[in-house]
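Support reply, case 0932

Customer input (verbatim):
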Amino acid sequence: MKNILTAVTVFCLTMLAYHYLIYAALMKIWGVLCPRPVRQAAVTSTVSLITSAYNEADVIAQKVENSLALDYPADKLEIIFVTDGSDDDTPAIVRQYAENGIILLHDPVRRGKSAAMNRGAAQARGNILVFSDANAFYEPDVLRKLARHFADETVGGVSGNKTIRQGDGRIGQSAGLYWRYESALKSWESAVGSTGAVVGEMMAVRRVCFAPIPSNIINDDTYLLLRLTGQGWRVLHDPEAVCWETAALTPEDERIRRRRIAAGRYQLVLQPHLWPWRHPVHLFQFFSHKVLRALLPFFMAGAFAANLLLVEGRQAGKLMKITFAGQLFVYLLAVFGTLFPGNGRIHKLPNVVYYIVNGNLTSLQGLARYLSGKQTVLWEKARREEEA
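Our regenerated output:
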């Protein structure tokens, strides 16, 4: 029994270390030793910017103004807002910008974001489709940054760099650090072949590659990634194509957001026929980045439980005592981050640990909601700091 518990502890801790540290280092080294360059050019192909918005009256005018201020040839840019299901002032506010060329698509029936994206894509005329959210605001040069990669005929999609404006809470600080880590990892993955994750706030797709997203898909961005890489297209991350949004207002709002994302992740992980099996590098990256992320809560629980049994049974050697002390320290940091939120230097590490541990616990809630059928494509809207 001692050997089994030791093996479980070591295996689970190794998988955790692999996902968060070793895989990232491997991508960095692989990209340096065997890079796969991307041909870039100042592309000004026709672009359709498609924003899905549900009851976003608080921010929709700012989003429209942000879209109109983008630095891209006006005769090559089409701006579409899909507000299906909105029963607040969102459609009326967008309609006020008709003179500026803004296209409004509105249906009183709410069918979810994927259906809205499909509606926008069917209407769009651009050779590049850029999908966005209403609370994601773009830097002026974003479209030029995204479009330049499509000069390479192997590229089917490009995702941008999501950043978080911190506000006053620990959520902003920890989420901001997390997204900086994600951006670095996705950049290293792109140098190897294709990123293993994208963001729905800024996802550009070559029009000829786009096909309607199934109506039951929760995470439209990851589905697009799998579809493109499954067909052999490269999907890149551009760290210079920056968008920003504010952090969730409260821990509960953040849990709602992460829970629905986790449910969508499990939905795709549990459908292996969607994985890019014919393209080993893409498959390896998706497995390491997304599939293992879905398994992290189980690795955490397995490592702690097996290590605890060794210690309680007085079967733990020096190494197992050290690993158990290390795990206790990590969870104590998470507790500190929970009980004593703040933005100071002393809070930085506890905030990050809290964000990771809480995210993995929330992931289990997402799994339960997916398996029970409670998580539908009609996402609950998490409040943001600017909406307080």
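We compared this against your earlier run and they match. Two observations from our side: Strands lie at 47-52, 77-82, 103-105, 128-133, 137-138, 155-165, 202-206, 234-246. The radius of gyration is 22 Å. Please reopen the case if you see a mismatch on your end.
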